[in-house]
Amino acid sequence: MTRGKQKIEAQKKNAERNQKSKGSQLEARAVALKIVCPICKVQLANHNQLRDHYGSKHPKETPPPESS
């Protein structure tokens, strides 16, 4: 019966560990998305994504220059 008790304790320990690690990632996402498309207000991570976005969503417009 020792193994049965160890299994139950391990399951409880894993459940507690998994419960603590879950949480909201909204703050981390807000920090990562820094560039905003001036036309449709989509948030993007970097200028390369903005250029790709302009190519697919706004093909007739020119993307703004990269501001360093």
TrEMBL record:
Domain of life per record: Eukaryota
Sequence ranges assigned to domain C2H2-type in this UniProt record: 37-58
Pfam families: SERF-like_N (PF04419), zf-met (PF12874)
PANTHER family (alphabetical): GEO09665P1-RELATED, ZINC FINGER PROTEIN 706
Compositionally biased tracts (Basic and acidic residues): 1-19
Keywords, comma-separated and alphabetical: Cytoplasm, Nucleus
InterPro entries recorded: MBS1/2-like (IPR045230), SERF-like_N (IPR007513), ZNF706/At2g23090_sf (IPR026939), Znf_C2H2_type (IPR013087)
Keyword Cytoplasm set for record: yes
Residues spanning the membrane: none
Native source species: Kalanchoe fedtschenkoi
Protein name as it appears in the record: C2H2-type domain-containing protein
Subcellular location: Cytoplasm; Nucleus
Disordered, as annotated region: 1-26
Main location: cytoplasm
GO cellular component: cytoplasm; nucleus
